[in-house]
């Protein structure tokens, strides 16, 4: 019989899918690594296993313990999946800009959700970083994986995402493109691909306009899960050869096209990554193979990027 011994064993092994229509006019082959094929519907399932395995190994998480983490939703889903299978309780702290649909998903997996305001500084006692620190102090047996600083996040991508892309492209990948949130995906996957290709793969980071990584003035934006207003330890800027800045409007327009033209219902950060990939790919020759990572599915954003009234309200075209 062929079966997985638990849902956790189905994490990884996501497909590469050619972007035919959206990349028309581009000579290079543009392939999407579609991470919503993971059971929790995002790339974050990969790091959830890595973070929990490491915490168990290091004795930081003991039977009956509680996982407390500030998360925009996807890391929470991954952690909730793995934690429930191993008997841990989960408390997640999410900023209020995260869609209610996403919070409901976390609760459905059995996690507890604490909502915090987005428009405060990271140092503010109400910020999602500070609230999670307080909960760790208050709850006995609590452990905070801290995806922003934990090296086991990028390591998960170094051990799974990178090798999968290298094997599936038979070593022919020339460019890897990903958005930067904690930086774990691009740092871990990028490092693996650079090592495997002996420096032959160019790593392209995509950053929302308003985020710190690409050096512009830091201000608010609507894209979720990408960009930051501080430098997390999970991000290794030395891996990144090139940065593309993409604004909300361009990212959302491509996100909608991915659903309508490629049958890929994905989140806004995927549209952002594809926008960056198309810019990078436009000048490349036919032999180039560009792999762009699509971090999550679009069902958590139906009342946002896929809602005409929401787009119009924020001044974007539908
Ligand atoms: N997109 C979404 C929707 C995310 O939740 C995240 C994770 N914060 C990312 C992209 C970026 O991934 P990473 O944290 O590995 O840089």
UniProtKB/TrEMBL annotation:
Matching InterPro entries: Cys_Synth/Cystath_Beta-Synth, P-phosphate_BS, TrpB-like_PALP, TrpB-like_PALP_sf
Highest taxon listed in the record's lineage: Bacteria
UniProt GO BP: cysteine biosynthetic process from serine
Record's keyword terms, sorted: Pyridoxal phosphate
Cofactor(s) listed: pyridoxal 5'-phosphate
Gene Ontology molecular functions: transferase activity, transferring alkyl or aryl (other than methyl) groups
Family recorded in the similarity comment: Belongs to the cysteine synthase/cystathionine beta-synthase family.
PANTHER family reported in the protein's UniProt record: CYSTATHIONINE BETA-SYNTHASE
The protein's name: Pyridoxal-phosphate dependent enzyme
Species the sequence originates in: Leucobacter weissii
